[in-house]
Specification:
By secondary structure, the protein is α/β, with parallel strands linked by helices. It is built from nine helices and twelve strands. The chain has helices at residues 67-80, 116-126, 138-143, 146-155, 200-207, 220-232, 254-258, 275-282, 326-336; strands at residues 2-3, 8-9, 88-92, 107-110, 131-137, 160-165, 168-169, 175-176, 211-216, 237-242, 261-263, 289-296.
Length: 337
């Protein structure tokens, strides 16, 4: 089974269903009869596979877009971790990749630009049993959402943050983004970018993130392992995904990345629990670009475990009618329902 410490499967085999440990669902117990978790053609007799997450909607991404690899890796990770669609929530913002929740069968929430982490944190507080993923682009995460990025790192809610980092604003037809490199020419930088790019790994490390990984959309198997390790980490986990934009970024291509990336897991001397080592690798960029688990800190409880209001159970499981004044409850219903 998957070993979240080392980032790979220990035996490469999935156990038979009867040998797998029982896991409580995010919303209480549920019978999987092949019909109640999705359209009937997806999975029969309680089988969880990639078809379980199949969406009737066809992606509108450009052929060759890195978002396809990210979508495939997320589906594969959820299946490998034996997580059913009703047990996960995927929150996104605005951008090409933020259409991802529509392209897999699971709970999804498309929020406004820059706010996926805030909404994801709220969802986790409302239902701590839910597996919550925030999926957003580099502009959404490190630009307009940069304030939420910083404070989510330090707060440490138990959510997985997957950033589709293509170094450009693609949905709006090719403006430079917070991670675009100096000299990069776009419609908003015809003379070349002259600003210093954001280094998300360094920022996350400085802000207190407990898990930081980087992967490449051109290697979905490696990306799947990083997502699985991130989801098994108790607390905020960042997976920065290097993603080519085949339409508007002609510099950071699949070949460009393939010639430069290397996996730190292949270096026996690298210690991802050492902040100094993480800083050194996290600030390395150019001719060589490290991928893999760059930093991991254990022993820090997730944010929601310290929230006293959750000691009585998840808000979604409470009967508010018994707790609220009847007059106030009716006022709330009129105002919001």
């Amino acid at each position: 089974m998957f070993d979240g410490v080392n980032g790979h499967s220990s035996d490469g085999q999935r156990r038979p269903a009867e040998e797998r440990p029982h896991r409580p669902s995010a919303g209480g117990e549920r019978q999987h009869n092949g019909h109640d978790h999705g359209p009937r053609h997806r999975a029969a007799d309680g089988v969880l596979d990639l078809k379980t997450y199949a969406s009737p909607y066809k992606p509108t991404w450009c052929p060759g877009c890195g978002d396809f690899g990210i979508l495939s890796a997320i589906k594969a990770a959820l299946v490998e971790l034996e997580i059913w669609p009703h047990e996960v929530l995927i929150v996104s913002g605005i951008g090409c990749g933020s259409k991802l929740p529509q392209y897999l069968y699971a709970n999804g929430f498309m929020t406004i630009h820059g706010r996926p982490l805030a909404v994801a944190t709220g969802a986790k507080l409302a239902n701590p049993k839910l597996h919550v993923l925030a999926v957003s682009g580099d502009g959404d995460s490190y630009g307009i959402g940069g304030n939420h990025f910083l404070h989510t790192c330090r707060r440490n809610p138990d959510i997985t943050h997957i950033v589709e980092n293509n170094q450009i604003y693609a949905l709006t037809k090719g403006q430079y983004s917070p991670t675009s490199e100096p000299g990069f020419r776009t419609t908003t930088s015809p003379d070349g970018v002259f600003e210093m790019p954001v280094n998300p790994v360094a920022v996350a490390l400085a802000a207190g993130a407990g898990f930081i990984a980087r992967s490449f959309a051109g290697e979905p198997k490696h990306l799947k392992q990083m997502i699985m390790a991130a989801m098994q980490h108790p607390g905020y986990a960042l997976v920065d995904v290097l993603q080519p934009c085949v339409a508007f970024n002609k510099v950071n291509t699949y070949n460009w990345y393939a010639e430069r990336i290397y996996d730190v897991a292949n270096d026996d001397t690298y210690d991802p629990t050492n902040p100094r080592d993480a800083w050194e690798r996290g600030t390395e960029w150019g001719e060589r670009i490290p991928i893999g688990i760059l930093y991991r800190r254990e022993g820090v409880p997730p944010y929601e475990t310290n929230v006293s209001a959750l000691q009585d159970g998840a808000p979604v499981e409470r009967d508010l009618a018994k707790r609220l004044d009847p007059v106030l409850l009716e006022q709330l219903k009129r105002a919001y329902v």
